[in-house]
Design brief:
Blueprint (H helix, E strand, L loop, with lengths): L1 H21 L1 H25 L6 H17 L3 H20 L6 H14 L3 H7 L4 H26 L3 E3 L3 E5 H22 L4 H29 L14 H5 L2 H13 L4
Antiparallel strand pairs: 1-2
Helix pairs in contact: 1-2, 1-7, 2-3, 2-5, 2-6, 3-4, 3-5, 4-5, 6-7, 6-11, 7-8, 7-9, 7-11, 8-9, 9-11
Length: 261
């Protein structure tokens, strides 16, 4: 299993880093593929919970949001959301009584939640955007790695015993410290900023990535499945690998765009 994880990382990480460095349409296409694959896994998770969103409408909503992101004309966000809601309402009428209000609400949730990955592309449009993406990636991966090893070696106090018994407070704190260290090391040489800002950013990246991971763990626990999918050898599904970025990406975007640093 470990060799599969390493092989997947050796192939996947350089590809993502290259797309992040190039930015533009290439990055948006890569994000779009990840987003759609993750959306399909999310819909499967919801189906396991006896919730049945309309897959076509969820996919259509994601594609429309990708188009809006490419043109960056935010006036159309409201139009897209209105169209999406109206289509779900029409599906509710057309497919009565099989299609329930909860199905439509779950479809909109899945679309919007996975669309948070679009913020990775939006980060690339900021000044020094490719470096900010790398900071997010480095911080997220460091958080995951440090949390794993800190939890294995020092973990004693359960973080969420009912939800994820293997996660500990020691591992969580180790993840935060690892993210801070990684963000600081990356930034000190390439993008020098104040120490306090880097500590805050590193901590927020780790905390948001851990929350994203726990959200997916909650859904998987309720659905009684181990992995969201099997697409990535050694890692499970797309959601299993990118769930931590669903919240860290928008956090980094707004952290930078509001000029906190």
């Amino acid at each position: 299993m470990l060799h599969l994880r390493l092989l997947s990382a050796l192939v996947g990480i350089p590809a993502i880093m290259y797309a992040a460095w190039q930015g533009g349409l290439l990055l948006l296409v890569v994000i779009g593929v990840i987003m759609v694959l993750g959306l399909m896994e999310m819909l499967n998770l919801l189906q396991a919970l006896e919730v049945h969103p309309n897959r076509n409408l969820a996919l259509l909503g994601s594609l429309m949001l990708l188009v809006v992101a490419y043109f960056q004309d935010w006036r159309y966000i409201g139009i897209v959301m209105t169209i999406l809601i109206v289509l779900h309402l029409l599906a509710l009428i057309r497919n009565y009584p099989r299609y329930k209000p909860g199905d439509g609400a779950a479809g909109i949730f899945a679309t919007l939640y996975l669309s948070l990955l679009i913020y990775i592309y939006l980060i690339s449009t900021l000044p020094n955007g490719n470096h900010w993406i790398f900071i997010m990636l480095v911080g997220t991966w460091a958080s995951d790695t440090f949390a794993y090893f800190a939890g294995r070696t020092l973990g004693k106090h359960k973080l969420t015993p009912k939800l994820s018994p293997k996660k500990t407070w020691e591992g969580s704190i180790g993840g935060v410290l690892g993210s801070i260290l990684a963000v600081f090391i990356y930034s000190i040489y390439l993008m020098p900023f104040s120490f306090g800002a880097l500590v805050l950013l590193g901590a927020l990246i780790s905390i948001s990535s851990q929350v994203g991971d726990l959200v997916e763990s909650t859904l998987k626990r309720q659905a009684k499945i181990k992995d969201s999918g099997s697409l990535i050898p050694g890692h499970g599904g797309v959601l299993d690998r990118f769930d931590s970025m669903l919240l860290s990406a928008p956090l980094v975007y707004y952290f930078v765009s509001v000029s906190i640093i």
